UniProtKB/TrEMBL annotation:
Catalytic activity field: guanosine(37) in tRNA + S-adenosyl-L-methionine = N(1)-methylguanosine(37) in tRNA + S-adenosyl-L-homocysteine + H(+)
Summary of subunit composition and partner proteins: Homodimer.
Domain tRNA methyltransferase TRMD/TRM10-type, residue spans: 1-234
UniProt-listed CDD domains: TrmD-like
Entry keywords, A to Z: Cytoplasm, Methyltransferase, S-adenosyl-L-methionine, Transferase, tRNA processing
Pfam families, per the entry: tRNA_m1G_MT
Family: Belongs to the RNA methyltransferase TrmD family.
Source species taxonomy: Bacteria, Bacillati, Actinomycetota, Actinomycetes, Kitasatosporales
E.C. designation(s): 2.1.1.228
Compartment annotation: Cytoplasm
Main location: cytoplasm
Official protein name in the record: tRNA (guanine-N(1)-)-methyltransferase
Recorded GO MF terms: tRNA (guanine(37)-N1)-methyltransferase activity
């Protein structure tokens, strides 16, 4: 996979040289190219922003440098291949595990982390006519710029690429991973030693009984999701829960409504 990032702070992307992403780059699984937007600013001060039309606080990133930068990146492809353009923005579609999986299947991604009040809207409109443009938000909050979201998205996407993780099954049971546990958070995990500071690993995990272990993990996932993300349980199709799931949820204060979906009475909600 090829990844291009256009930014006014190339040094912010240095973490892409370490950990799993850095190893993937060294192994040739990821071709990451970071470009300084100011290369395409032609005045003495290499200006990339200006005041907004209509007034208001803050500055807006100018279309000229962005247009030249994107044209140069697109022209660097040896063939007709077109990338997916990923625009980090608080007003975009939520970034989810499902979207990470979708983007991991694209051979080429171009990220446009903005600063100030964002990029002149005409840039997005211009390239939406010839590229698959995704405006994406990593959460309901505002950062100083889009570089941190790029780091988040690249790591989430890269770990799904074949060969990046040492064990190809490692992401199978992740929170939000597709499959039977997709609607639940991942439960707690343990490793050696079996006793630490008077705290022991749950007995079931050292029992060797795979059926009991699987059930315990499922129950713990239900408990954690109930405590931290009850909205996931409320949104889940009731058919995704088996009989034991329903018993566990009932013990946690959940009740099924007339439509079969689970909800919690106000008195049952944890403080």
């Amino acid at each position: 996979m090829r990844l291009d990032v256009i930014t006014i702070f190339p040094e912010y992307l240095e973490p892409l040289n370490v950990s799993l992403v850095g190893k993937a780059r060294a192994a040739g699984l990821l071709d990451v190219r970071v470009h300084d937007l100011r290369q395409w600013a032609h005045d003495r001060h290499r200006t990339v922003d200006d005041t907004p039309y209509g007034g208001g606080p803050g500055m807006v990133m100018k279309p000229g440098p962005w247009g030249e930068a994107l044209d140069a990146v697109l022209a660097s492809a040896p063939g007709p291949e077109r990338p997916v353009l990923v625009v980090p923005t608080p007003s975009g579609r939520p970034f989810t595990q499902a979207l990470a999986g979708e983007l991991s299947e694209a051979p080429w991604l171009v990220f446009t982390p903005a600063r100030y009040e964002g990029i002149d809207r005409r840039v997005i409109e211009e390239y939406a006519g010839r590229l698959d443009v995704r405006e994406v938000s990593i959460g309901d909050y505002v950062l100083a710029g889009g570089e941190a979201p790029v780091l988040v998205m690249v790591e989430a996407i890269a770990r799904l690429l074949p060969g990046v993780l040492g064990n190809a099954e490692s992401h199978r049971d992740d929170s939000f991973a597709p499959g039977a546990m997709a609607h639940l958070l991942e439960g707690p995990v343990f490793t050696k030693p079996p006793e630490w500071r008077g705290r022991e690993v749950p007995e079931v995990l050292v029992s060797g009984h795979h059926g009991r272990i699987g059930r315990w993990r499922r129950d713990e996932a239900l408990r954690r999701t109930s405590a931290h993300r009850p909205d996931l349980i409320e949104r889940t199709d009731p058919a995704a829960f088996d009989r034991r799931d329903r018993e566990t949820l009932a013990a946690l204060g959940w009740r099924q409504g007339a439509d079969g979906r689970f909800g919690r009475r106000p008195a049952d909600v944890e403080e």
